[in-house]
Specification:
176 residues; mainly alpha; 9 helices; 49% helix; 7% strand
Amino acid sequence: MKFNRLLTDLKKIETIAAEKEDENDRFRIFLKQQDEEYIDSIVHALNEQITAQIDCTQCGNCCKSLMINVSTEEIALLATEFQTSPADVKERYIEESDEGQLIINSIPCHFLSGTTCSIYEHRFTDCRDFPHLHKPGFTRRLFGTLMNYAICPIIFNVVEKLKPALNFNTDHPQQM
């Protein structure tokens, strides 16, 4: 199924996201009351259809906006690709959070070139999996998903197509 009028204009998405903040809060509560597997099946189908119509490499907004987690294995793979040591990669591109999580030390990402990733074939798992809509447990990740609603055209369009698919009434603030 091809959707008409997928919105990909980042400025419009950001504006609409601000306007729909209360609606999306209600939608999040509504979704928490639904069957998780049923929601996942719809989200996965929408994600597949919408992702096929949006070229992430023409956007790159996630690379300009998100903090990316990396693993020691990914650092080692990147070091091999760069023909350097993992310590050098870590020193140049990675920092450790207070909780011990390894993250890219720059937003936007060091590896963003225009709207594309200069290490695309070797990109990190967090990057490969974003926007995470193909994974089970959508309703358990709503906070993070809706945090990225304003920056990712795929998330934006999936959420907006999900509302009518579930007969969510966007006109009534009392619906939960």
